[in-house]
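sry for the spam today, last one i promise. C-alpha cells for design, 792 residues
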C-alpha cells in the first residue's frame, strides 16, 4: 500500500524560519548538530538582529561562516522576505559555497535568470563583481534593466568585497588609449605645476610615479573632459563599459590620478546607489574573520553606522586552530632572511635539523609574497610558483598531497589550505596597493594608525590560510623586520583579533626562551608545533580558552563624515559637504590624517569658494606634505641642525621605540626598505628620511614637500647639509647622469626653495651597479661651490 504523505502531519505545513530548526530538519545534512559557535551566532541574529538592515558577523577563520550565511539566506526565503543572494569574492569560492550548500541539501542557483531564484525557491550564489558593475544583470540606476528586488544579501569575506567595490567604481584609461593622450595634454600644465619631477618620471615610464590632477583644474575643465570621454562611453569602449555608468553622474567630484600605466578616475566614495538591488535590499549581512575596522563598510557600501555599532559573534573566540607564529628577526636580529628561506626549504624535504638528510616527515610549505619581485627571491627553492590566474590548480594540488615548497604571489585571502595542505606558512612581505589613488593614500598616511590597521588586516588574512578549523594546526614564520615589529610592538598587537592576539602572545613567550638561539631554536620550536607536542597543544588550548570576541564595532568618525559629505556633494550641496568634513577635522588628532581630510574638504569647497579652498589646502599641507600644493605655493621651512646630535637622536629613539628589541627591529625595517625596487621608491625615500632622524639630524624630503629639490636633505651642522638623490627605482648605469638639476639646485639652496640661505652641501648620489644586485653609495667631501660638478 502506498501512503499519501500530504495527509500525514500538519494539514497546512509551515516553512521553518529559525535557522537552527532549518538545519535540524535537513534530511541529508553531513553533521548531526551545528557547532556551538554557529548556533550562538544564528540565534543572536534571529532573535535580536534579523530586522536590522546591516549586520556584521565575525567568526574566526574556519569557524563555519559559510554555513551560517547559507542558513540565514534560507531563513529569509522561508520567511517570505524576498529573493536571496550569497556573494563570494570570486568564482572559485562561489563554486565552493554551492558545493557546501549541496552537502547541506539547500537549493542554489548560479545565474540570476534561474527561475528557482526568481521564484524565491533557491539561493543565488554568485560574485560581488556580478552584482556591482556598470552592466549589472541586477540593474543599474538609469539603465534599461528593471532592478531585481532582493530580500537579503549575504556578503562573504566582506574585506575582499570592499576591495572589489573600489575597483568596480574606478575608470581606468590605459596609457595606449586615445583618451589618455587627450587628457594628459589637457592637464599637462596643471600636472607640471603640481609635480614636475613626477611628470618627467611618468614620461620616462617610471611605474612608481603618480600625480594627482589638481581638483580645481579637473572641476574647471569639465566641458573639455566630457568632450574627450563621452564619445568613448557612447561607443561602449571596453575601458569605459563597466565603470562609466557608475561614475558619470559624479564625474566632477572624482579624484584623478596619472601614472605611467594610465589615468584613473575614481569618486571619493563609491556611489553605491547606482546599484539599486544593493541599496534597497531589506537585509545585508557581512561575514568576516579579520575586519577589525568596520569603517570601510560605511564609506564603500553606505552601511548604517548605528547597525555596525554592535557585532554578532560567538560567545567564545577559542574556535581557532593551533598556530605558532615566529618572527626570526625578532628572535635573533643577526639572522638573515636567506637563512630562513633555506630552513623553510629543508622542512619541505623533511630535513628538520639542517644536516642535508631527511629524517622527518616532509611537509607542505606555503610562502605568501606580495609581488613577482619578491617571488624571485624564492626562485631557486620553490617547487611551484602560482599567480592568481592559476591559483585554483595550485590549491587543488596542495590539498591532494605533498608538493613541497609552494610560492603564492599576491594572494593573502580567499584560499583554504586545511590539514597537510599547509603545515608551515611563510609570510614574506605585505602586499602594497596597486591602484594609483591607493598608492598615493598609502604614501600620505605612511605611519598613520589607519595604514597600520590595514597592514595588520592583511597579515592576519595571510596567517589564516593554513588553519581552517579548531582541530587544524599550522606553524607560521614572518620574514623581515617590518613583520617582526608587527608582532612585537603593542600598538600593532592591539589591532589583531582577540584570538590571534592570544596566539601571538603565547608565541612570544616561546620566542623569549629562544632569544639569540639562532636557527636551531627555531627548528626545535617548529617541530614542536608540527609534531603536536602534548605540552605545546595544552598551552595553546589554554591560551585561547578565556578569549572573547570584541562585539563592539569600530567605525571612525571621519569615515562617517566622508560618506555623508560625498552624498551631500553628489546631491549638489558641496558647501554642506565641506562643513560636514570640518566637523571631523575638529576631532582628528593625527596630523597626517587631518591634512588628508582637509584636502578632501578643499575639493568640495572649491565649487562655492575657490579662495577658501586654496586656504584650506595651505592648512592641509602644513599637517601633511603629501597633499596637493596650493596655487600660491608653499613657504620653505628653515632646516635647523640639532644643537647636540646625540641628544636629538636619543630623544627621537626614546619617543619612537618602547624597548631595545623594538629599536633593533625598527632600524632593520628602515634599512630593509632601502632596496633597489622600482615598485618601492617612495618607501625607500621615506626610509632614508627616517634614517636621518634616527641619526639625530633634521631630515626632510624637499622633492615631496616643495616638488623641487633632492629626494632627501639632512641638516648636519648649522653650516653643512647632506643632499641625497636616491635612484632605487633605476637599474641602468646611466641613472646617475639622468637628472642633475635637483642636486645642483639643492646644493645652492640646501633643499628648501625659499627663505633659506646658501650652505655647503655634501652631495650623495646612490645608484645601482651595472649588475643591479647590490647598493653602492659614494659621497664627496663637503664643498662650498653652489654649482657642483656631476656627482659620481
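last one done:
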Amino acid at each position: 500500500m502506498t501512503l499519501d504523505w500530504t495527509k500525514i502531519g500538519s494539514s497546512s505545513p509551515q516553512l521553518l524560519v529559525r535557522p537552527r530548526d532549518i538545519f535540524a530538519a535537513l534530511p541529508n545534512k553531513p553533521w548531526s548538530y551545528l557547532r556551538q559557535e554557529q548556533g550562538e551566532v544564528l540565534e543572536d541574529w534571529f532573535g535580536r538582529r534579523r530586522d536590522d538592515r546591516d549586520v556584521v558577523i565575525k567568526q574566526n577563520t574556519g569557524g563555519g561562516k559559510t554555513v551560517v550565511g547559507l542558513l540565514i539566506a534560507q531563513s529569509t526565503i522561508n520567511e517570505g522576505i524576498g529573493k536571496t543572494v550569497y556573494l563570494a569574492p570570486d568564482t572559485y569560492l562561489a563554486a565552493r559555497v554551492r558545493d557546501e550548500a549541496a552537502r547541506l541539501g539547500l537549493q542554489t542557483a548560479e545565474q540570476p535568470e534561474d527561475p528557482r531564484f526568481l521564484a524565491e525557491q533557491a539561493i543565488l550564489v554568485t560574485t560581488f563583481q556580478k552584482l556591482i558593475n556598470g552592466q549589472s544583470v541586477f540593474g543599474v540606476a538609469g539603465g534599461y534593466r528593471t532592478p531585481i528586488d532582493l530580500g537579503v544579501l549575504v556578503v562573504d569575506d566582506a574585506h575582499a568585497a570592499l576591495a572589489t567595490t573600489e575597483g568596480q567604481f574606478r575608470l581606468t584609461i590605459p596609457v595606449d588609449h586615445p583618451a589618455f593622450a587627450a587628457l594628459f595634454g589637457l592637464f599637462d600644465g596643471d600636472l607640471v605645476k603640481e609635480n614636475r619631477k613626477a611628470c618627467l618620471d611618468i614620461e620616462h615610464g617610471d611605474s612608481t610615479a603618480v600625480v594627482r590632477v589638481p581638483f580645481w583644474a579637473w572641476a574647471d575643465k569639465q566641458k573639455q573632459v566630457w568632450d574627450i570621454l563621452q564619445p568613448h562611453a557612447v561607443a561602449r569602449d571596453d575601458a569605459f563599459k563597466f565603470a562609466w555608468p557608475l561614475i558619470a553622474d559624479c564625474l566632477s567630484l572624482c579624484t584623478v590620478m596619472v601614472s605611467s600605466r594610465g589615468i584613473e578616475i575614481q569618486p571619493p566614495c563609491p556611489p553605491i546607489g547606482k546599484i539599486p538591488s544593493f541599496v534597497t535590499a531589506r537585509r545585508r549581512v557581512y561575514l568576516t574573520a579579520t575586519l577589525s575596522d568596520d569603517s570601510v563598510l560605511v564609506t564603500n557600501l553606505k552601511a548604517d553606522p548605528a547597525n555596525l555599532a554592535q557585532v554578532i559573534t560567538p560567545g567564545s573566540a577559542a574556535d581557532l586552530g593551533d598556530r605558532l607564529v615566529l618572527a626570526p628577526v625578532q628572535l635573533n636580529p643577526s639572522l638573515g632572511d636567506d637563512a630562513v628561506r633555506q630552513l623553510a626549504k629543508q622542512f619541505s624535504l623533511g630535513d628538520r635539523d639542517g644536516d642535508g638528510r631527511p629524517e622527518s616527515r616532509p611537509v607542505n610549505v606555503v610562502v605568501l609574497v606580495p609581488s613577482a619581485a619578491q617571488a624571485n627571491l624564492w626562485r631557486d627553492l620553490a617547487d611551484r610558483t602560482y599567480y592568481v590566474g592559476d591559483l585554483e590548480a595550485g590549491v587543488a594540488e596542495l590539498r591532494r598531497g605533498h608538493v613541497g615548497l609552494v610560492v603564492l604571489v599576491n594572494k593573502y585571502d580567499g584560499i583554504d589550505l586545511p590539514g597537510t595542505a599547509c603545515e608551515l606558512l611563510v609570510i614574506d612581505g605585505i602586499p602594497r596597493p596597486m591602484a594609483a589613488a591607493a598608492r598615493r593614500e598609502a604614501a600620505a598616511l605612511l605611519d598613520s594608525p589607519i595604514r597600520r590597521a590595514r597592514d595588520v588586516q592583511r597579515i592576519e588574512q595571510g596567517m589564516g590560510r593554513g588553519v581552517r578549523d579548531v582541530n587544524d594546526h599550522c606553524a607560521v614564520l614572518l620574514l623581515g623586520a617590518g613583520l617582526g615589529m608587527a608582532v612585537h610592538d603593542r600598538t600593532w598587537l592591539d589591532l589583531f583579533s582577540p584570538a590571534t592576539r592570544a596566539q601571538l602572545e603565547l608565541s612570544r613567550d616561546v620566542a623569549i626562551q629562544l632569544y639569540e638561539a639562532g636557527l636551531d631554536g627555531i627548528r626545535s620550536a617548529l617541530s614542536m608545533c608540527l609534531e603536536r607536542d602534548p605540552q605545546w597543544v595544552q598551552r595553546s588550548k589554554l591560551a585561547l580558552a578565556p578569549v572573547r570576541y570584541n562585539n563592539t564595532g569600530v567605525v571612525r568618525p571621519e569615515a562617517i563624515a566622508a560618506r555623508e559629505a560625498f552624498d551631500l556633494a553628489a546631491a549638489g550641496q558641496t558647501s554642506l559637504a565641506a562643513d560636514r568634513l570640518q566637523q571631523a577635522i575638529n576631532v582628528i588628532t593625527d596630523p597626517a590624517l587631518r591634512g588628508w581630510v582637509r584636502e578632501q574638504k578643499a575639493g568640495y569647497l572649491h565649487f562655492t569658494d575657490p579662495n577658501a579652498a586654496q586656504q584650506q589646502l595651505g592648512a592641509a599641507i602644513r599637517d601633511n606634505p603629501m597633499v596637493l600644493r596650493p596655487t600660491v605655493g608653499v613657504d620653505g621651512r628653515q632646516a635647523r641642525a640639532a644643537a647636540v646630535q646625540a641628544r636629538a637622536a636619543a630623544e627621537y629613539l626614546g619617543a619612537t621605540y618602547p624597548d631595545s628589541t623594538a629599536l633593533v627591529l625598527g632600524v632593520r625595517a628602515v634599512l630593509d626598505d632601502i632596496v633597489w625596487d622600482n615598485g618601492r621608491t617612495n618607501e625607500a625615500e621615506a626610509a632614508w628620511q627616517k634614517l636621518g632622524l634616527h641619526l639625530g639630524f633634521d631630515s626632510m624630503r624637499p622633492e615631496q614637500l616643495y616638488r623641487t629639490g633632492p629626494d632627501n636633505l639632512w641638516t648636519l651642522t648649522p653650516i653643512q647639509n647632506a643632499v641625497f638623490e636616491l635612484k632605487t627605482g633605476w637599474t641602468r648605469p646611466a641613472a646617475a647622469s639622468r637628472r642633475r638639476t635637483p642636486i645642483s639646485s639643492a646644493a645652492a639652496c640646501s633643499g628648501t626653495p625659499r627663505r633659506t640661505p646658501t650652505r655647503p652641501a655634501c652631495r650623495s648620489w646612490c645608484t645601482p651597479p651595472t649588475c643591479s644586485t647590490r647598493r653602492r653609495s659614494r659621497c664627496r667631501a663637503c664643498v662650498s661651490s653652489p654649482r657642483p660638478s656631476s656627482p659620481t
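Residues 733-761, 767-792 have pLDDT under 50 and may be disordered. ok im logging off now
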